[in-house]
Design brief:
The structure holds two protein chains of two kinds. Chain A is α/β, with parallel strands linked by helices. Helix content of chain A is about 25%, strand content about 30%. The termini of chain A are far apart. Chain B folds into two domains: about 160 residues, Rossmann fold; about 120 residues, Rossmann fold (3-Layer(aba) Sandwich), CATH 3.40.50.1220.
């Protein structure tokens, strides 16, 4: 099998995001960027499947500005075989990303496409499902366990009620939950080796995809702040405050 | 044009968040129609028709809809979407799984997880785990919207008598098969709608220690939540997870025990009315959002908490 894994470069999950004073977005200058966390799980799962002998090739793809290549390079360092970088500047909405990935899928003909279930920057949770619709493939979203069968996957999905298990025929799309696996760290020799692995560069305009945003961002602002709380000395005081001051118990 | 809401249900009952979504959708367009796709879901259709905000219920019934597979639902929705300006659904795992598939086929850039309707084309939504709020305007002629249920009140459920019509769906997608659903049955209030939530984190140390939390939840008629760390460690099942990639809760009282307060956890609970944090690390970020912070060892504090609650003559339920 051949697995295509889509990765996105986002502000690192440990960074306290700050809103720009002019209301046009959040501060990204001099801020640590990383691969979107569940995309790391997507890569890890692909690498595990390859190591088990059930996949032959892993291709990592990203859509974004030049620096987005870093995420592909990282995927190569943990086991992807080659990379694709589709260059687009500015905001690219999930619909445009999925149209780009559809073109890549048409060309690469993977059996599986993996990606994280949600990007932690825009929190949209759309791209995998949109791509599945455009390709008319089945989708296994929010996956916390994947079992590879002959020509299908059995996937355990994390849903609000608990867990759901479905079987999807290949080709299929899987969006990965953080609990799917424990992503490995790249070793130094593998980071060096990854520098020699090829990354193909494509311009989104060459794919004939209009990436112009359909959603106008009018302003970005700080959420309302909570007023500062107090520390209580002991449990008795806590219960007294909850009962008589906050009146919630 | 009108708005079309996709109902979430279990073929027997309407799921509570559908009512919150009805409120949001009727703020977008008063001419609100609800699409009920399912199998033998007549009771669901009937109860939605009694919601005063609903003007019409469209009922699609077929065995292939019994397990709510997005692949099958999508074709039924697209088939019935023609006369609507907005397609709306809750941003829980049901809607998150379903709506983007619909949006892509309608060639619409979806607006996810809105917390406020500013006008029929402009919405407020949190980004970066709720660390920023974006005001966004959709320029697509047909809009696909998912709403954050806890940001809208549930609609009144009786007094209406909407027209009910039957409609056709589509064919089954043969590339997907439902196998099973493991629901965690509980007598407690649902996490998403509970008045009080008490959550445990990595500091609980083991699944067994969650019994300290359970005892207090019993007293307060609370739902039990958890941080991702506690779920990852196997202390408790995934349906309890509160946070950016879990559930968003807005109870009157949220009690965080042994939770340090990572940004990703705060995203799921910081809109709660009153927040209590119990943690032995006085520097833990959770204290920055807590109305009442107690710096203490949870293994001493929780039994004391239970004891103090037992002394009270009355406790709100």
């Amino acid at each position: 099998m051949k697995i295509l894994v889509a990765v996105k470069r986002v502000i690192d999950y440990n960074v306290q995001v700050r809103v720009k004073e002019d209301g046009t977005g959040v501060v990204t200058e001099n801020v640590k960027m990383s691969t979107n966390p569940p995309d790391d799980n997507a890569i890890e799962e692909a690498v595990k499947i390859k190591e088990s002998g059930k996949a032959q090739e892993i291709v990592a793809v990203t859509v974004g500005e030049d620096k987005a290549q870093e995420t592909v390079r990282k995927a190569l360092a943990v086991g992807a075989d080659r990379g694709i970088h589709v260059k687009v500047d500015g905001i690219v909405e999930p619909l445009a990303v999925s149209k780009i990935l559809q073109k890549i899928a048409d060309k690469e003909k993977p059996d599986l496409i993996f990606m994280g279930k949600q990007a932690i920057d825009d929190d949209c949770n759309q791209t995998g499902q949109m791509l599945a619709a455009l390709l008319n493939w089945p989708q296994a979203t929010f996956a916390s366990k994947i079992e590879i069968k002959e020509k299908s996957l059995e996937v355990t999905r994390e849903v609000d009620e608990g867990l759901e298990t479905i079987e999807v025929n290949v080709p299929a799309i899987v969006t990965c939950d953080l609990r799917l696996n424990e992503p490995r760290y790249a070793s130094l020799p593998n980071i060096m080796k990854a520098k020699k692995k090829p990354i193909e560069q494509i311009n989104s305009s060459d794919l004939g995809i209009d990436t112009k945003p359909r959603i106008e961002q009018i302003k970005v602002e700080e959420p309302p702040k909570r007023k500062a709380g107090i520390k209580v000395a002991n449990v008795a005081e806590l219960v007294e405050k909850l009962k008589n001051e906050a009146k919630v118990i | 044009m009108s708005a079309l809401l996709i109902a979430e249900h279990n073929n027997k009952e309407v799921k509570p968040f559908t009512l919150n979504a009805i409120t949001a959708a009727s703020q977008i367009d008063e001419d609100l129609h609800v699409l009920v796709i399912g199998h033998k879901a007549e009771e669901v259709v009937k109860s939605i028709s009694q919601v005063p905000n609903v003007k019409k219920v469209i009922h699609v019934d077929k065995e292939i809809y019994e397990n709510f597979l997005a692949e099958n639902f999508t074709s039924a929705i697209v088939k019935n979407a023609e006369n609507y300006s907005h397609i709306v659904c809750s941003a829980n795992t049901f809607g998150k799984n379903l709506m983007p598939r619909v949006a892509a086929l309608l060639d619409t850039s979806q607006v996810s997880d809105i917390i406020k309707v500013i006008s029929p084309d402009t919405f407020l939504r949190p980004i970066y785990a709720g660390n920023a709020f974006a005001t966004v305007k959709s320029t697509d002629s047909k809009k696909c919207i998912t709403i954050r249920p806890t940001s809208f009140d549930p609609a009144v459920t009786s007094g209406g008598s909407a027209e009910i019509v039957k409609a056709d769906g589509g064919d089954a997608n043969t590339n997907i098969k439902f196998i099973k659903r493991e629901e965690v049955k509980s007598d407690r209030p649902e996490l998403g709608t509970a008045r009080v939530v008490i959550s445990g984190g990595r500091g609980m140390g083991s699944g067994d220690n969650f019994k300290l939390i359970t005892a207090i939840a019993d007293k307060l008629n609370a739902a039990i939540g958890a941080s991702r760390a506690a779920v990852d460690a196997g202390y408790i099942t995934n349906d309890h997870q509160v946070g950016q990639t879990g559930k968003v809760v807005v109870p009157d009282l949220y009690i965080a025990v042994g939770i340090s307060g990572a940004i990703q956890h705060l995203a799921g609970m910081k809109e709660s009315k009153v927040i209590v944090a119990i943690n032995k690390d006085g520097e833990a970020p959770i204290f920055s959002v807590a109305d009442y912070g107690l710096e203490a060892d949870l293994f001493e504090a929780l039994p004391q908490f239970l004891e103090e609650l037992s002394k009270l003559n009355t406790i709100q339920k």
